[in-house]
Task: structure prediction
Amino acid sequence: MTEEKTASASGSILVVGGGISGLTTTLEAAEVGYEVFLIEKNPYLGGRVAQLNQYFPKLCPPTCGLEINFRRIKDNPRIHVMTLAEVEKVEGTPGNYNVAIKVSPRYVNENCTCCGDCAEACQTEIESEFDFGMQKIKGAYLPFGMAFPARFVISSDIIGTEDAQRCKDACKYDAVDLDMAPKTLNFNVGSIVWATGWEPYDASKIDSLGFGQHPNIITNMMMERLAAPNGPTKGKIIRPSDDKEPESIAFVQCAGSRDENYLPYCSYICCMASLKQATYVRERYPEAKIYVFYIDLRTPGYRYERFYETIKEDENIFLIKGKVAEVSEDPSTKNITVVAENAVTGEKIHQTVEMVVLATGMQPTTTTAKLPADLKYNEDGFILNDFDTGGMFAAGCANKPADVVSSNQNATGMALKAIQTLVNR
Amino acid sequence: MADTYLIEPDLDFIKEVGALGGEDLKKCYQCATCSVACAISPDTKPFPRKEMIAASWGLKDRLVGNSDIWLCHNCGDCSTRCPREAKPGDVLAAVREYAISAYARPKALARALRDPKKLPILVAIPVVLFLVIGTITGLLDFTPDLSEGIKHYKFFSTWLVDMHMVAAAIFMIAVFAMGLKRFLGDIHQNALQEGKTDKEKIEVVGFFVALLKVIPTILKHNKFSDCTENKEREIAHMLTIFGFIGLFIVTSIVFVFIWGSYLLPSGPIHGPWSMWNPIKWLANASGIALIGGTVWLIINRRSKKDQKSGYWDWYLIYLAFGLGVSGMGTELTRIAGWAFICYLLYFIHLVFVFCMIAYLPFSKLAHLVYRTVAMAYNEYAGRNF
Result:
């Protein structure tokens, strides 16, 4: 795929963020012959996509595509991957940026074979951010089964404790290095692509939807983890309060999105995500009743529209036009009653279900952590692409709410923009 | 929803609702959050989502004669929760203002009540009537005898007061009677059309039973207590309304007593009454409640930046406030012995009273009647409200 057929081009590109967009930009630019520094703040690549169970509309696992991308990265000497790395400073002009990258210690070096002895030895358990706190993991952990780089991480939470020493002592390969310190790397690049991605909107901010108050109200990203074979339940969709297999589920669309009180914009993916997740439930529990409460079902394009048509035919899936504006929990059964007005019939519905999934939207990562670079943002916090100035570009969900397909198209385009900056300098 | 019909949008109506405070109406995308956010909206055909689309589409007939616009108590919970900031609460308030004008006759007077430029004329009507009729009949004495202290009837005869106030009240009742006849017919028609009732006709007895049932709800402000956004308004409104009721009772007693005393061989007995008379206690307590309530309402409205308040609202609140202040002022200056100020305040007070009574069906205060009737109808129609 990436044999040394192309001559090495001059100049290098910094890609910030190792999610699907960042991976795409990196690979597209590197495979044309440019040197790319890919930095990722997490200890693994893959970003949000790595957390998903299946892609829509093909319902295939994202791990498949990720694996191919990881392979391409491994084979390409022009790509320099840095995980646990964040941009500290950017100075300069298009074609000539001096960047400072802060790399946090992983405390595990390249000797790691993923044998897992350190995790075995570690006694402290920490919440798994990857699984949205739905399970505890050891203080020494592999982010997920096919993480890239395939190397354990020692959580900074246990550094300085006896546990850290236990991990070191347990390692047969001398891979645990507790003396690793944060370091700052400086280098020069010609252009920068910001693929800083998104965060699920904090559902506990939505007062009326009871997230964080009632255990059986979860978010759509939590649903992905429940359905994923490598998730906290090994792919079993069970409700948090009592591990019961739910016989009825309500999906609450626009949970925070299209709402001036929360996120004013449409997050683009949630409608398709819920319809997709309805298939997860149908596959596991053919008798389960599924209620999707929506304002408008937005399934743009031929493929998505066809997916929606199929779902619509399902006699156990009820699509109800009306936003859920109130939820309550029955303290004895822990069942949830959602209330909405069906705008088609003009009747209020009080639907009691065993589990509720909030279709929360995406918020650009940059709303909570502004980037140390001279970038323009729109009122929603997404990075505006200023092609007149050039040099720095936003790709994927750093730029707008998008699905994987459009993120990849956009990321490919930004790879070209980054290359143009180098060529024109 | 299978039935189709041709929508005939009334564009002027849409514009007018916008001008009356519902200018964000078109932002609505029909998510129906408002219908659920509203604590008092019924389960069958809840409001205000359907009112929002009817207003957007200019379906005037579905709104003006729709009892649901009156079930709303304008607490603003829907506007706060609205994801589009379309302010359904303000839209319904605008539609109610439109509806009051629509049922009031003569139309010119209804228009005048909504136009601040016409305010001087409206105030001038009682002033001129009092002066002209008072001077012609000699019932207004600008040099009253002060030998027995300040006696209001010596300045402004009780005859002069009541010939105006009774006439104003008859006018008011007649205007309401005509308006209500059409109103009841319209809301029943609308309820049948929207499937809100299974009652074919409005039966008088059943309707009055329903009316009696809702009166305690209204007095206890039960529907106000359900609001979350504008909770402090409940007590302010309660003080105002109980102030009014108290003053109405006092006025009725005094009215009967004065005219009754004409039958006494010793001749009529005029005020002022003793401060130790329980009726006086009620009068003073009511007056204080009215002033306190209206001041609270004014502060409350002024502090609410997210809710529209226009001339329509301020006219009523300040009139009620002025009524209380001028009444209380008349009493206090009488006790102080400031004859000129006292008589002037009394004159102003009577002007306010006349405005309150005569313009009632045309002003925002008409909600007293329309909301009561709508709530009674809703009770009669059998919806869970």
